[in-house]
Structures are given as structure tokens and as C-alpha cells.
Write a structure and sequence with these properties.
By secondary structure, the chain is α/β, with parallel strands linked by helices. The chain is 47% helix and 18% strand. It has a six-stranded mixed sheet, with helices on both faces. The protein has a two-stranded antiparallel ribbon with strand order 1-2. Helix 4 crosses helix 5 and helix 7 runs antiparallel to helix 10.
């Protein structure tokens, strides 16, 4: 027990004068959360059906409400990748989460589709896109690198060996990312009573650099006239936040109990 089990719980054990001295155990709980409102500044993200409203503004509003609720009701540190209308590169977003030793990364987005009737919510975690629909959303979210970060050269930067190695380092968090994705999708659909577009896997650049459980959620379609109007309403945003909050709370309680 002392030689094999205790080292799994305590990072350093010292035997001194017949006494076992152990440093505090590694904390595997959810203590720091980074919320990432997508797009911003010169990158508007999805443009609404009305052509008057933008994804970047809606997700920032949702992120701020969520940050406030998490900090007030859970014993966690909650950080946000941008708190105003400014452009932040995809790499800067995950670099920030890594620097802050975040235990969970949640990227918030709104969707768009040429079919104006497309609607619903979907949640993603990192992997190679499995379906045409997932690949389409992946391309939509990743194209900001080409448009705003330097074209082909910037795309190449995200695809070089360092990121292949980063993907390997993220394998250990894949199960947790999958787990919280399914949990969140279930709660969002139950609370919002909208079309369930399911949980999908996709190779989002913004998730590739995050070395912690990470998910990306598409909260609705800006290109759909009805959903655009819903997403603009504070009451609807609060309902979205409540579903995300309930998910984080349940996820946190599970992993805190592993301590």
C-alpha cells in the first residue's frame, strides 16, 4: 500500500525516522474554468438572418452571464478569453487557458447554414470530423484563421508538428470531453426544447491547443429567423446559461468527489 498505492495519491512521499511524510495530494477537481466567447472584433462570426446582428455579440453576452453565475454559485475561478468586442486568435485563446491551468474550457458559438430552416443546438469535442455536417461546421469555425490570421501560412502554422504532438497530449482528456459534451447536450435540449443536432466530433483549431477537457457548443442558428430572435433575448440567454451551469455543476461534483 505504501509503495504502490500512496504514490498514486500523494506526489511526494518521504520516510523519515519511521514517519511517513506526504505532500498534499494532486487536486484533480474542477477549480478553474475558462469560457471562450467565439470570434470578436474584425471577425463577426455568423451573421443573423436580419443582417443586423452578429454571433460575436450574442456569445459574449452569454459568456458574461455564465461567468457571473458560475463565480457566484460554485467555488471556482472563472476566466474569459475576451470581455469586450476584440479579436483574439484561436491560439491565444487556448494559450490563455493553458497558462491559467484551467480544468475546463468551454467555447461558445452560434451556427449558420445556407438552409435558413436549419435550427437546433449541437455540442462538439475534439477529433476528426465524422460526418459531412460536422466537417461543414468545422470549416466554418476554422476559416477565421485563413481570413483574419494570415491565410495559408497561418493555416500551416496550426497544422505543423507541434499541434500533432498537442493532439497526442490531449488524448488523456478525450473521455472527459466526451462525457461533458453528452451531459451538456442532454441538458440544453431538455431545457430549450429545440432540435437536437446531437454531439459530434470535429477538428476545431480552438480546441486543439487546450490541454484540459474542452468542448465547443453551437447555441443556435443565426441564419434562422426564429432562432436569431430567440438568441437576442436576455431571458433565452439565461436559459442557455442555466443549462450550461447545471452541466458544469454536475461535472464538477463528480470530479471533486474523486479527491
Amino acid at each position: 500500500f505504501i509503495k504502490k498505492i500512496m504514490p498514486l495519491i500523494y506526489p511526494e512521499i518521504i520516510f523519515k525516522n519511521g514517519i511517513i511524510i506526504a505532500n498534499p495530494p494532486v487536486n484533480f477537481g474542477i477549480n478553474t474554468i475558462v469560457i471562450d466567447p467565439g470570434h470578436g472584433g474584425k471577425d463577426p462570426g455568423a451573421i443573423g438572418f436580419s443582417k443586423k446582428h452578429f454571433e460575436k455579440d450574442i456569445v459574449l453576452s452569454v459568456a458574461k452571464i455564465l461567468q457571473k453565475k458560475l463565480m457566484k454559485e460554485l467555488d471556482v475561478k472563472v476566466l474569459i478569453t475576451r470581455d469586450k468586442d476584440e479579436y483574439v486568435t484561436l491560439q491565444e485563446r487556448t494559450d490563455f487557458a493553458n497558462k491559467e491551468n484551467a480544468d475546463l474550457f468551454i467555447s461558445l458559438h452560434c451556427n449558420a447554414h445556407p438552409n435558413k430552416n436549419a435550427s437546433g443546438i449541437e455540442t462538439f469535442y475534439l477529433s476528426t470530423a465524422k460526418t459531412d455536417e460536422a466537417r461543414a461546421v468545422e470549416a466554418l469555425e476554422n476559416e477565421v484563421v485563413y481570413k483574419y490570421e494570415g491565410g495559408e501560412e497561418a493555416m500551416q502554422k496550426y497544422d505543423e508538428l507541434a499541434f500533432i504532438l498537442a493532439d497526442m497530449a490531449q488524448v488523456e482528456h478525450l473521455n472527459e470531453s466526451s462525457e461533458i459534451s453528452y451531459l451538456l447536450q442532454k441538458k440544453l435540449i431538455a431545457k430549450m426544447q429545440c432540435v437536437d443536432r446531437s454531439v459530434k466530433q470535429a477538428n476545431f483549431y480552438v480546441l486543439r491547443g487546450a490541454f484540459m477537457p474542452s468542448i465547443l457548443v453551437e447555441l443556435g442558428f443565426m441564419s434562422n429567423k426564429i432562432e436569431e430572435q430567440k438568441l437576442l433575448k436576455t431571458a433565452y440567454q439565461i436559459k442557455l446559461v442555466n443549462a450550461i451551469f447545471d452541466t458544469v455543476k454536475e461535472f464538477k461534483q463528480k470530479y471533486d468527489n474523486l479527491q
